[in-house]
């Protein structure tokens, strides 16, 4: 009687002590490997942002913003500049720019514009001039003049004029090299009140001539 030896079936192995019906987990990435990449991306993004901010701060610091005086409103040629005509602006540039500091506004207020200036124009000493100051022996005379009695267009304080009496050209001007002291409009239609600074003697002659009849102003070189 033959005996049968029952041998318990044992699962075959792949030579490494692992069963064939068990999946080789060494071929799968660990669960945490994919999650580790998220912090790495965040760190990289933070570094990029940090460098960008540093570049912006460096550029801001390297370009110094300087305060300067500018016009807050349009100013016509010959108009005196007041404090309300001025404002402070800040310049962000490395290039040298002609300007006046806010503390130098006292050197501008009360002086007259040498040209028509638009709002936003940077004020410099070249934009303005002083009204002539009176000295002993000087006089200022005012003339109410109609269009045609004064040069049209560009007459303004600081200009130099001769005063003549129409019809007496052979006798020459009654006053030479008088300086325009101030100009005011008289009710439109081009009528103006023009004040002239000259010597006291010449101012008296001009006043007497204007009382007797019309006079005219001739613009001459300074």
Head-to-tail CA distance between termini: 151 Å
- Whole-number radius of gyration? 45 Å
- Fraction of helical residues: 10-25%
Q: What pattern of helices and strands is seen along the backbone?
A: HEEEEEEEEHE
Number of helices: 2
Structural category is alpha+beta
Largest sheet: 5 strands, antiparallel
Account of the 3D structure:
This protein has 222 residues and is α+β, with helices and mostly antiparallel strands. 20% of the residues lie in helices and 25% in strands. It contains two helices and nine strands. The longest helix has 31 residues, at 32-62. The model is unreliable at 1-20 (pLDDT under 50).
SSE inventory with pairings:
Elements: H1 32-62, E1 65-71, E2 86-92, E3 112-113, E4 128-129, E5 138-145, E6 160-164, E7 175-185, E8 192-199, H2 200-212, E9 216-220
Antiparallel strand pairs: 1-2, 3-4, 5-8, 6-7, 6-9, 7-8
Could you provide a short overview of the structure?
Helices cover 20% and strands 25% of the residues. The chain is of the alpha+beta class and 222 residues long.
Notable characteristics:
single chain; 222 residues; alpha+beta; Type Iii Antifreeze Protein Isoform Hplc 12; five-stranded antiparallel β-sheet; two-stranded antiparallel ribbon; 2 helices
């Amino acid at each position: 009687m033959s005996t049968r030896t029952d041998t318990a079936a044992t699962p075959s192995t792949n030579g490494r002590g692992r069963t064939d019906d068990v999946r080789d987990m060494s071929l799968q990435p660990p669960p945490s490997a994919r999650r580790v990449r998220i912090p790495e991306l965040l760190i990289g993004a933070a570094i990029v942002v940090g460098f960008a901010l540093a570049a912006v701060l460096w550029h801001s610091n390297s370009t110094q913003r300087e305060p300067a005086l500018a016009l807050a409103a349009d100013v016509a040629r010959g108009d005196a500049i007041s404090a309300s005509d001025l404002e402070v602006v800040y310049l962000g540039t490395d290039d040298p720019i002609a300007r006046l500091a806010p503390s130098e506004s006292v050197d501008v207020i009360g002086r007259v514009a040498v040209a028509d200036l638009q709002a936003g124009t940077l004020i410099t000493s070249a934009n303005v001039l002083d009204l002539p100051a009176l000295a002993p022996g000087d006089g200022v005379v005012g003339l109410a003049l109609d269009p045609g009695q004064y040069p049209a267009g560009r007459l303004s304080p600081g200009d130099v004029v001769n005063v003549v009496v129409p019809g007496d050209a052979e006798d020459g001007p009654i006053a030479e090299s008088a300086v325009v002291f101030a100009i005011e409009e008289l009710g439109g239609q081009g009528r103006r009140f023009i004040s002239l600074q000259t010597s006291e003697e010449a101012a008296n002659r001009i006043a007497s001539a204007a009382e007797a009849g019309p006079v005219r102003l001739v613009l001459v070189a300074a």
